[in-house]
Design brief:
Radius of gyration: 21 Å
Strand content: 25-35%
CATH topology of the largest domain: PH-domain like
Order of helices and strands: HEHHEEEEEEHEH
Helix content: 25-40%
CATH class of the largest domain: Mainly Beta
Number of helices: 5
Strand order of the largest sheet: 1-2-3-4
Length: about 170
C-alpha cells in the first residue's frame, strides 16, 4: 500500500503539437463533374431497382463530399500525456488503445490508432517534426502494427489507378 502512495499519479505532458483536425484536399472541377455524373447514373439504376431511398443516400454522400472539401480544417492542439492522447478536449487512454501505425494521405502524415472502445478508430494528423518522438513515446505503451493488405485494398487501388476521377 505504501508503494502506491509514493507513486506519482498526476498527468504529465510528454509531447504536444499543433496540426489540423483532419486530412484535407482541394478537388478540381473535373473531379466534381465526374462524381456528379457517376452519382446520377448510379441513382437512375438504384431508383429502378429499389426506389427513392437509395437515391437520397447517394446524393447525401455527394453533398457530404462537397461540404467537407469546401470546409477548411481547424488547427488543433494535440497532447501526448502520461495517461494517453488528448485531442479536441477528449482523452484517449493508453489502456483503450489496441495498436497504432502511420500512413500518408494526400501528402499529410497520419497516425491511426485502433481503440478497444467507441469510436473504435482514431485518426490524428501529425506534425512531421514530432513524428519520431511520438512514435518513441507510443511504443512504450501501445503495439505498433500496420494492418495487412487484403485483396479488397489491392482491388480498390487498381480501380483508382485505372479510372481516376480527376
Amino acid at each position: 500500500m505504501a508503494e502506491i502512495e509514493n507513486k506519482d499519479l498526476s498527468e504529465k505532458i510528454l509531447l504536444e503539437f499543433e496540426a489540423y483536425d483532419r486530412p484535407h484536399k482541394v478537388w478540381s472541377k473535373e473531379f466534381y463533374s465526374s462524381v456528379i455524373v457517376i452519382a446520377f447514373l448510379v441513382s437512375i439504376i438504384f431508383y429502378f431497382i429499389e426506389g427513392f431511398m437509395p437515391v437520397l443516400v447517394i446524393w447525401a454522400l455527394v453533398f457530404m463530399l462537397w461540404a467537407m472539401a469546401k470546409t477548411e480544417p481547424r488547427l488543433i492542439k494535440t497532447e501526448l500525456t502520461s495517461w494517453g492522447l488528448k485531442s479536441q478536449e477528449k482523452t484517449y487512454r493508453f489502456e483503450e488503445m489496441a495498436s497504432f501505425w502511420f500512413e500518408t494521405k494526400w501528402g499529410t502524415r497520419l497516425m491511426r490508432i485502433n481503440l478497444a472502445v467507441v469510436p473504435w478508430h482514431l485518426v490524428v494528423v501529425l506534425d512531421p517534426n514530432k513524428e519520431d518522438d511520438l512514435k518513441k513515446h507510443m511504443l512504450e505503451r501501445v503495439i505498433f502494427q500496420e494492418p495487412a493488405v487484403t485483396w479488397v485494398d489491392r482491388a480498390l487501388k487498381w480501380v483508382g489507378e485505372k479510372m481516376p476521377l480527376e
